[in-house]
Amino acid sequence: MAEIRVAIVGVGNCASALVQGVEYYKNADEDEVVPGLMHVNFGGYHVRDIKFVAAFEVDKRKIGKDLAEAIFAKPNCCAKFADVPKLGVEVKPGPILDGVASHMKEPFNIYDESKIKPADVAEVLKESGAEVLVNYLPVGSYNATRFYAQAAMDAGCAFVNCIPEFIASDPVWSRKFEERGLPVAGDDIKSQLGATILHRTLVKLCIDRGVIVDETYQLNLGGNTDFLNMTVEERLKTKRISKTEAVTSLVPYEIPTRIGPSDYVPFLGDKKICYITLRGRKFGNLPLTITAKLEVEDSPNSAGVVIDVIRAVKLALDRRVAGPLISICAYSFKHPPVQAPDPIAKEWVEEFIQGRRER
Ligand SMILES: NC(=O)c1ccc[n+]([C@@H]2O[C@H](COP(=O)([O-])OP(=O)(O)OC[C@H]3O[C@@H](n4cnc5c(N)ncnc54)[C@H](O)[C@@H]3O)[C@@H](O)[C@H]2O)c1
Fold this sequence. Notes:
Layout: E1 4-9, H1 13-24, E2 50-57, H2 67-70, E3 91-93, H3 121-128, E4 132-135, H4 142-155, E5 158-161, H5 171-179, E6 183-185, H6 195-208, E7 212-222, H7 225-229, H8 237-248, E8 257-264, E9 271-282, E10 286-297, H9 300-318, E11 323-324, H10 326-332, H11 342-353
Parallel strand pairs: 1-2, 1-4, 2-3, 4-5, 5-6, 6-11, 7-8
Antiparallel strand pairs: 7-9, 9-10
The chain binds nicotinamide-adenine-dinucleotide (NAD).
């Protein structure tokens, strides 16, 4: 099988976990159960078939470095779980656009665009032979996400949108990819076992057991730059929509809901803490309350999911399937083009892998 040539925009904590994960599982046995992957062999592609070929950043501590080094540069704080050998991929300066909020200029240590010329992103993608561009920009990067999505199309690359900007789930953008003959997957990656999937499971359990859900909230705390960036409410609009719809889409009536990032606690580093509360009524209109607390290492939590998504996108490229990939999007993203309960979405993906579903 051919390799899968992947480019990354935003070499932050999620990129670190992804690059480390590909190294960590490169020799995984095909019969092995790897926590966080659907399959070691996903439609004929092994984890080690993923090859990183280009990366874009705005942080001076990462630009010009080999990707294997840049993933461990500050302010990244993702746990180190793999020794990544040099990859021969120099991190290039990407256009800053609205990727960096004013309160993030210092933490991201951004380069001076008047002194260093940003790379021609489409050109770098073409030269590197990238087939898939993975978007890991900060939340609130409206223009930057659209810029990189366009550059991906110009270079003939598929696009994996891990952030809550609506591209795969936006009919205009997904049609652009379809017309260009390229697959697109998004939006806003789900974690292996994160706040969203836990909250969805609790809500679904209540609905399936005939409990009336009256109200629910989900509070999230963390200490990485993703959480620092999200302390500004104006960057959070789509994140709240994405996280909220992932839960409310399972409830057949409206309920008061509050879901989103809640605070930045610097000493938590890459640890994320989530509190979920759900109040409802059961037989006799008697009250029921569920409270749950989840503590996880944040960034590695979605890396395996992205490894599966990249391989699903590659299958679509092989099969010349263009536009939004309904099954992998429903299973792996919070704001997909079509929402589905997780077990159904999982079946769809298995059918897609076997070629029994087009998308
Ligand atoms: N942790 C998870 O599991 C998870 C789940 C869902 C969504 N996400 C989203 O994935 C994204 C990445 O998360 P992260 O934890 O890696 O964040 P991060 O803050 O560690 O990384 C973002 C990186 O983007 C860089 N950047 C900013 N503007 C840029 C530009 N214009 N061009 C190139 N690079 C630029 C920053 O310098 C930084 O290194 C965030 O939007 C996050 O909300 C993460």
